[in-house]
Specification:
Shape: globular
CATH architecture: 2-Layer Sandwich
CATH topology: Alpha-Beta Plaits
Number of strands: 4
Radius of gyration: 14 Å
Distance between the termini: 27 Å
Strand content: 25-35%
Largest sheet: 4 strands, antiparallel
Length: 104
């Protein structure tokens, strides 16, 4: 399994973290689920707008495909006005994965 890590900062003067999360859930997550090799995502943030998205992919090629297919660029363009600066990305091979039980 491979992970693509995206680090970004939401411009909280333009939108709240909650509003940005709702936009992600409504506009990105359904399309993300349709991408070949997609295995899941973790979205984390601080109240100040610092955020990290860790998307999980079945193969290295599936993780890298997001760049060449244009999907990522399109999504980034749709959300560009919500960020203080362009997001940073990196790729990792997942060596250990232990998912905690859902917290209720």
């Amino acid at each position: 399994m491979y992970a693509r890590v995206t680090q970004l900062e939401i411009d909280t003067l333009r939108t709240s973290v909650d509003e940005a999360l709702e936009l992600f859930r409504a506009n990105v997550l359904p399309s993300l689920r349709e991408q070949p090799g997609y295995c899941g995502v973790y979205v984390m943030s601080t109240p100040e707008g610092q955020a990290v998205l860790v998307s999980l992919w079945a193969t290295k090629d599936a993780a890298a495909e997001m760049n060449s297919g244009g999907w990522y660029s399109t999504v980034l363009g749709d959300f560009g006005t919500l960020f203080r600066s362009p997001p940073g990305r990196s790729y990792y091979e997942v060596l250990v994965a232990e998912t905690p039980a859902a917290v209720t």
